[in-house]
């Protein structure tokens, strides 16, 4: 059972590494909208980050270079 928990944690870390920038931009846009300001820039940044993450996810990788290229910047 412990092995499954470790595997799930590693997958979660990988997903957050790929989509973390998208989530941050969406949260920033939500905060801007709640404060009554336009969040067009934050929404556009989130869309760009999600497209970048999607293209990085489609690249074949081995275990030796699994996290290479997944950093948001």
TrEMBL record:
Region Disordered, residue ranges: 41-73
Chain intervals with Polar residues compositional bias: 42-58
Keywords: Membrane, Transmembrane, Transmembrane helix
Superkingdom, taxonomy of origin: Bacteria
Membrane-spanning residues: 6-23
Protein's name according to its UniProt entry: Pilus assembly protein
Annotated organism of origin: Solilutibacter pythonis
Lineage: Bacteria, Pseudomonadati, Pseudomonadota, Gammaproteobacteria, Lysobacterales
């Amino acid at each position: 059972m412990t092995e499954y928990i470790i595997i799930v944690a590693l997958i979660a870390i990988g997903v957050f590494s790929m989509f973390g920038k998208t989530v941050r931009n969406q949260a920033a846009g939500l905060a801007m909208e709640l404060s009554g300001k336009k969040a067009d820039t934050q929404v556009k940044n989130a869309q760009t980050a999600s497209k970048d993450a999607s293209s990085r996810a489609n690249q074949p990788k081995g275990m030796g270079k699994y996290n290479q290229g997944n950093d948001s910047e």
